[in-house]
Design goal:
Number of strands: 2
Radius of gyration: 18 Å
Largest sheet: 2 strands, antiparallel
Shape: globular
Strand order of the largest sheet: 1-2
Order of helices and strands: HHHHHEEHHHH
Helix content: over 70%
Strand content: under 5%
Distance between the termini: 48 Å
Number of helices: 9
Length: 222
């Protein structure tokens, strides 16, 4: 069953590539492409990780961490798209929990939780720009967030030791001040590449990127 879930999750990622191959300018195409990745992440965390064996654990953790970090990027999208994806993600999680719980144990409270969660607001009385995410940078342009995220996915799913996709997404997040998720991105990409290519080492660019991101986080916390 886990192999089936893995195949479906990979198919969803591939579908995201296909859906956005021609254009990432239309809002409906952007949301559709993002939802494919969010659904893949939900499958990995709500189903595959729950029932995987020791043999399938590495593949499940690898794909699960990849789709999770991309979902974290996409839910920071501007123009209300991040909120749409967050609500979609919570709804998928609630449906998965409902299937695992005994019949009747999941009440309407779950539905209300989804609505309340999706309508949460960031603090308004703060001395920052209204589009500034507290603690992790500006809201991200949806089209660019999707294209950079898919480039990152394509690189790691292709098994290439090249870091071009990672650099593109990391630079994009750094410019927007999203240093926390940028650091998680580097940790995720480095762990995946080192596990696939044990003989390889972190390049000088990788070390510099890690140091710069940690320094940016430290400076912002002062």
């Amino acid at each position: 069953a886990v192999h089936v879930v893995l195949s479906v999750a990979l198919a969803l990622c591939i579908q995201a590539f296909k859906a956005t191959a021609s254009s990432t300018d239309r809002r409906d195409i952007i949301i559709s492409g993002m939802k494919y990745v969010v659904r893949a992440s939900s499958l990995m965390h709500d189903y595959a990780l729950v029932g995987c064996s020791r043999k399938t654990l590495p593949a499940v953790v690898s794909l699960g961490s990849l789709t999770d970090i991309v979902t974290q990027v996409l839910t920071r999208a501007d123009e209300g798209i991040g909120e749409i994806l967050d609500k979609f993600r919570v709804a998928l999680n609630w449906e998965a929990n409902k299937k695992r719980e005994p019949l009747g144990s999941v009440s309407e409270v779950g539905c209300n939780h989804i609505d309340n969660h999706s309508e949460r607001q960031f603090p308004k009385k703060i001395g920052l720009h209204p589009t500034w995410y507290v603690g992790d940078g500006l809201l991200l342009p949806p089209s660019e967030a999707l294209s950079c995220s898919l480039a990152y996915c394509r690189e790691l799913l292709g098994g290439s030791p090249s870091v071009s996709g990672t650099q593109v997404l990391h630079n994009f997040l750094g410019v927007k001040g999203a240093h926390s998720v940028a650091l998680r991105l580097l940790c995720n990409s480095n762990s995946i590449r080192l596990s696939r290519f044990p003989s390889s080492n972190l390049s000088e660019n990788d070390s510099v990127a890690n140091q710069d991101t940690v320094r940016n986080l430290a400076e912002r916390s002062l």
